[in-house]
């Protein structure tokens, strides 16, 4: 009798299951987006990462050239894994005004705004974009999943909250030729979209919502379509963009562009309140550059009292700043010092910017450093040189964000490159 046969049946089942393909799910990411067949066909690097449980490309063919596709042509990026909620009903506006920092009453149908929301202690739970599709129907897009929080917050409001992440596929089309591609694809009237406008267009027997938004600081659009129409939308854009240099890209290239635009990422540049384990990692809106969103005139919203109190008593402890660093070695995750001695913060994202021709970074600093004390700041970089790390202390200067500002992002009507 073999050793395997001698084992109890239950133990045999465990051994077999451990080697069956169905049980190897922990080695692979679990969910494909509706655009996966097209992305798989273009994948050259086999460079994947996990975006909220989805199999997403970090790069597809060359991360450097993918970045330059954003800045000189048009880049297509699958944003389907972005969490999407449909919020609708007679009280949708009142509910979202109670939930988020900005005044939703000022957001008109056919418009989008960037917003954030906090817990009752005034700490940021997430940031995202709010699309007002009609008077009573909204779409909230963000990084993290918040359905229990949203449902609890909706008690007492005549409103329904539905997660539609899997039902709605989405693409970001970014870069100088993005408008020309949409017009070539037959989306008549897309030239009327100003920055943060949205409109619905017919597509393949259904419709696609196109907004003039993006995460690159460039001319660009985001397209939302029912999942069953995803592939036909991709093919429509791909065919229209053939002569306009359309390329598919991964997150690495997008991350470089967003940093040049001075945009922050949840759980990268700040820790969201639901993920923070240590109390000193929590952040208020003013501490991560989102203070401009806070509308204290609109009435009560989550965290309002604490945020107002922190402002009036000047008890805010951190500030998120843009840095320009001497040299050309990126300072990602470098410690920031004052006078090369006192540790005052940490760099969360950094690159050598091809557009700005500067070594740039985002950093979270302890006040007053980066706020009223901005002189004599340094970053500590460890650079690999011929199989040896060398410690470099480089000067850092607090600078305004965005690091680059492209007129074509807001030009109306957009230029047809």
Commentary on this structure:
- Keywords: Methyltransferase, Transferase.
- This is Aminomethyltransferase.
- It holds the Pfam family GCV_T.
- One of its GO terms (molecular function) is methyltransferase activity.
- The protein is α+β, with helices and mostly antiparallel strands and 417 residues long.
- 20% of the residues lie in helices and 31% in strands.
- It has ten helices and 19 strands.
- The chain has a six-stranded mixed β-sheet with strand order 10-11-12-9-3-13.
- Strand 10 and strand 11 form a beta hairpin.
What's the CATH H-level superfamily name of the largest domain? Probable tRNA modification gtpase trme, domain 1
Rg over CA atoms: 23 Å
Order of SSEs: HHHEEHEEHEEEHEEHEEEHEHHEEEEEE
Helix content: 10-25%
Would you tell me which CATH topology of the largest domain applies?
Gyrase A, domain 2
Tell me the name of the CATH class of the largest domain.
Answer: Alpha Beta
Quick synopsis:
Keywords: Methyltransferase, Transferase. The chain is an alpha+beta fold and 417 residues long. The protein has ten helices and 19 strands.
SSE map:
Elements: H1 3-6, H2 9-19, H3 36-42, E1 47-51, E2 54-59, H4 63-72, E3 74-78, E4 83-88, H5 92-99, E5 111-118, E6 124-132, E7 137-142, H6 147-153, E8 160-163, E9 168-174, H7 178-184, E10 198-203, E11 206-211, E12 220-226, H8 230-240, E13 246-248, H9 251-260, H10 304-313, E14 318-325, E15 335-338, E16 342-353, E17 358-366, E18 377-384, E19 389-399
Parallel strand pairs: 3-13
Antiparallel strand pairs: 1-2, 3-9, 4-7, 4-8, 5-6, 6-7, 9-12, 10-11, 11-12, 14-17, 14-19, 15-16, 15-18, 16-17, 18-19
């Amino acid at each position: 009798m073999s050793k395997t046969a001698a084992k109890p049946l239950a133990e045999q089942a465990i051994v077999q299951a451990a080697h069956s393909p169905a049980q190897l799910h922990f080695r692979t990411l679990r969910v494909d987006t509706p655009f996966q067949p097209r992305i798989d066909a273009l994948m050259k690097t086999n460079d994947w990462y996990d975006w909220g449980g989805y199999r997403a490309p970090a790069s597809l063919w060359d991360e450097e050239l993918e970045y330059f596709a954003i800045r000189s042509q048009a880049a297509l990026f699958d944003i389907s894994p972005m969490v999407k909620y449909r919020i609708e009903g007679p009280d949708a506006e009142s509910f979202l005004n109670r939930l988020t920092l900005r005044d939703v009453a000022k957001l008109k149908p056919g418009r989008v705004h960037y917003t954030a929301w906090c817990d009752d202690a005034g700490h940021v739970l997430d940031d995202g974009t709010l699309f007002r599709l009609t008077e009573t129907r909204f779409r909230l897009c963000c990084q993290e999943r918040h359905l229990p929080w949203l449902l609890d917050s909706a008690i007492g409001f005549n409103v329904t909250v539905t997660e539609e992440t899997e039902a709605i596929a989405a693409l970001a089309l970014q870069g100088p030729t993005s408008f020309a591609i949409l017009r070539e694809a037959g989306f008549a009237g897309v030239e009327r979209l100003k920055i943060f406008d949205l409109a619905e267009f017919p597509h393949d027997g259904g419709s696609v919502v196109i907004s003039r938004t993006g995460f690159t600081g460039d001319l660009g659009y985001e397209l939302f379509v029912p999942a069953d129409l995803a592939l036909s939308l991709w093919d429509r854009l791909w065919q229209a963009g053939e002569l306009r240099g359309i390329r598919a890209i991964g997150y690495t290239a997008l991350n470089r562009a967003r940093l040049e635009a001075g945009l922050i990422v949840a759980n990268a540049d700040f820790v969201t309140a639901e993920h923070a384990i240590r109390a000193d990692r929590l952040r208020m809106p003013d501490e991560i550059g989102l203070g401009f969103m806070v509308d204290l005139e609109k009435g009560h919203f989550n965290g309002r009292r604490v945020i107002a109190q922190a402002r009036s008593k000047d008890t805010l402890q951190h500030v998120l700043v843009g840095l320009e660093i001497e040299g050309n070695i990126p300072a990602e995750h470098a410690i920031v010092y004052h006078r090369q001695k006192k540790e005052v913060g940490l760099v969360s994202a950094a690159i050598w910017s091809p557009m700005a021709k500067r070594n740039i970074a985002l950093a979270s600093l302890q006040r007053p450093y980066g706020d009223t004390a901005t002189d004599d700041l340094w970053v500590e970089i460890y650079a690999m040189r011929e199989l040896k790390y060398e410690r470099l202390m480089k000067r850092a200067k607090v600078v305004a964000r965005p690091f680059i500002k492209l007129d074509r992002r807001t030009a109306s009507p957009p230029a047809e490159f």
